[in-house]
Amino acid sequence: MTSSIPPAFVFLVAAALVLLLPGGSRRLLVPAVPLLGGINLWFVWQGGGALEVPLLDTRLTLLRADSLSLLFGLLFHIAAFLGAVFAFHVRDRLQQAGMLLYAGSALGAVFAGDLITLVIFWEGATLGSVLLILARREPRAVRAAMRYLVFQLVSGLLLLGGAIVVIGDTGSAAFGHIGIDSLGGVLIFVAFGIKCGFPLVHTWLTDAYPESTPTGMVFLSAFTTKLAVYALARGYAGTEVLIPIGTAMTAFPIFYAVIENDLRRVLAYSMINQIGFMVVGIGIGTSLALNGAVSHAFNDVIFKGLLLMSMGAVLHQTGKINGSELGGLYKSMPQTTGLCIVGAASISAFPLFSGFVSKSMVMSAAAAEGYWIVWILLLFASAGVFHHAGIKIPYFAFFAHDSGIRTREPPLNMRIAMAMAAILCIVIGCYPAWLYSLLPWEVGYVPYTGSHVLVQVQLLFFSALAFAFLNLVGLYPPELRSANIDSDWLYRRLLPGAARRIEGAVAALSAFIREQSTRGLDRLFYAIAQQNRPGGVMARTWPTGAAALWILVLLGACLVIYYV
Amino acid sequence: MKKKYWLDERRNVMRLIWFFAALCVGVLVIDAGFHRHEEFFWEGWFGFYGFFGFIACVVLVLAAKELRRLVMRREDYYDE
Fold it and tell me: What does the alpha-carbon distance between residue A202 and residue A268 come to, in Å, rounded to a whole number?
């Protein structure tokens, strides 16, 4: 059936329209696009099928609708709608175009059936997302955007290179299971890994996302990394190396999150932690694990979006986002506080909230396959995420010591967007059957068993007790104005420092060579000048008689040669 | 005149914490009388999840404090 059009097109056409339309209609258009796209998506869902267009001697599959791509397609429509409502007050054309281009490209990549289409939309997502960081229009954000761009472009180039190798090897551009057994497979794996935030190449996320606009980060958190999770689930399910990588992703960011001051950066670290759970699930590769991975991606977009919306609201209202400068905001922003707590409960996987019904699938899958070290570390990360995202975020923003800031609730559109996200978190948490029915693989998973609820409540209550205890005895580290160095130190300090040193050495060398050569030339010119001065060889006067004698000798010589 | 909130009283905060601590004890009591499903043998230990959660968070925070010595710099560290 071809009555439906690729979901990306709806967004991309609208992104082009944004460049032309005047302010008022532009603001209405942005949230309308995901709704229109949703209607189109419904037709795609009904029709299934594919849309292929010829290109040179191959065919591009612009629309491949199967249960995996449809799940992420639905998710991206929901995320785009929530983000658009949250950003309804924004009049900045750059941000509006960026939002639509970004969401559209992510949808294009999700529905791409071949590697060439994937590469094109992968780059489109890079372009759209960088606009949301640049739109902050501060020198600091622009510098972060440039570093972000380098990472994203490297990922794009690796994907392109890998795609060329894979197509050369197999003769097919189809985007299915790839695996890391071939060079092309490894290149694409690294490309996905960069966008996914694998350890050491994760810093683009924690560096650039918190520099974006208050509304921009809500968008950024939804698409790039979840697109990478989708791509890994499609191409690398059951690739075992993902298990240690994912476990590391769940564990190391929580330490940074505890000491980080910028609350949106805390959530950026927390994003890596949550993606870690998904990556582990993809690495385990059983139906339960894969379902856990994709359903957790689904829930994460919504509850992380909700948390980032609440922090975006705080930033929008107060102009501050550092834990050290905030506190006591519950007095003037009670609604935002309540909505933030719903997001916090969801990310912490509290029973009746969405995180509970998905994260537990990954944990159960790890246990079922006997990965006990992984399981222990995931349990540690679960307690840790509650600690830094579930407690720290609402506590330092809305409670803690009263910073004296008195403000108002954010604009209505922001509150509506947060409320919709909060309702989704609770509905999915209380009625997981709806989400489970959308999952690509067979599920026979029951989240709400007595022992499961009990152990989770126990884990979370005692983690919270630890927080209260550490605070009471004064062991809890205070929020400090600071920058924490991460692996970005390599390219933000070490390499520039080394480059400066090398530059200095080259400059010194060149000065030395210049000095030596000028001295040599000076000597040469001096010597020549000496010969041209009075008393020099060239300045001597010779009698004409001698010249006549020399001419006579020359002519004589000519005669002799002539006759011989 | 500045409005006084319930949570502004330290006494009330302490009440809240004690109430919460009582909840924790309640959860432990339930654990004692409930046979849980377990994948690993240690899950069967009494209050395993509670102790794990508490210790994990204390270790996390103390380790993160030590991490500060290693990674914390001035706020404008990267700014030229």
Answer: 10
Q: What is the mean pLDDT of each run of 10 residues along chain A (564 residues)?
A: 77 93 88 94 82 78 92 97 95 94 97 94 95 93 94 95 94 92 95 96 94 93 96 96 97 94 95 97 96 96 97 95 92 95 96 94 92 94 91 92 89 96 97 93 86 90 92 87 87 89 94 92 89 77 78 90 82
Are B34 and A492 inside 8 Å of each other by CB?
Answer: no
- Paired with A61 in beta bridges are A52
Residue of B nearest to A385 (CA): B57
In angstroms, the Cα distances linking A76 to A27, A103, A145, A416 are 20, 7, 23, 18
DSSP-derived secondary structure letter, B34: -
**Residue A380 in domain:** yes
Cα-only R_g, chain A: 33
Q: Collect all residues of chain B within an 8 Å Cβ-Cβ radius of residue A466.
A: 53-58, 61
Please state the domain count of chain A. 1
Interchain CB contact of A487 with B (< 8 Å): no
Q: Measured between alpha carbons, how far is A233 from A414 in angstroms, rounded to an integer?
A: 33
Whether A398 contacts A344, CB under 8 Å: no
Residue type, A397: A
Distance of alpha carbon A561 from alpha carbon B19, whole angstroms: 128
A5 — phi, psi (to 5°)? -110, 155
* Model pLDDT, residue B80: 57
The SS3 of residue A449 is coil
Q: Do the Cβ atoms of A485 and B73 come within 8 Å?
A: yes
What is the interface pTM, i.e. ipTM, of the complex?
A: 0.90
* Mean pLDDT across chain A: 92
Helix, strand or coil, per DSSP, at residue A441:
coil
Q: How far is A181 from chain B (nearest CA, A)?
A: 33
In a domain, residue A295? The reply is: yes
User: Are the C-beta atoms of A313 and A418 separated by less than 8 Å?
Assistant: yes
Look up residue A332 and give its DSSP letter.
T
For residue A393, give the 3-state DSSP assignment: helix
Phi, psi of A384 (to 5 degrees): -65, -40
pLDDT computed for residue A478 by the predictor: 85
What secondary structure does DSSP assign to B35-79, as a single string? Answer: ----SSGGGGSTTHHHHHHHHHHHHHHHHHHHHHHHHEE-TTTT-
Domain that holds residue A355: 237-444
Q: Which residue has the tokens 């008195």?
A: A406
The H or E element containing residue A115 is helix A115-134
Phi then psi for residue A443, to 5 deg, are -120, 135
In a domain, A178, yes or no: no
Tell me the C-alpha distance between A467 and B58, whole Å.
8
Residues of chain B with C-beta less than 8 angstroms from the C-beta of A207: none
Is residue A263 situated within a structural domain?
yes
Report B:10-69 residues touching A (Cβ under 8 A).
17, 20-21, 23-24, 27-28, 30-31, 34-40, 43, 47-58, 60-65, 67-68
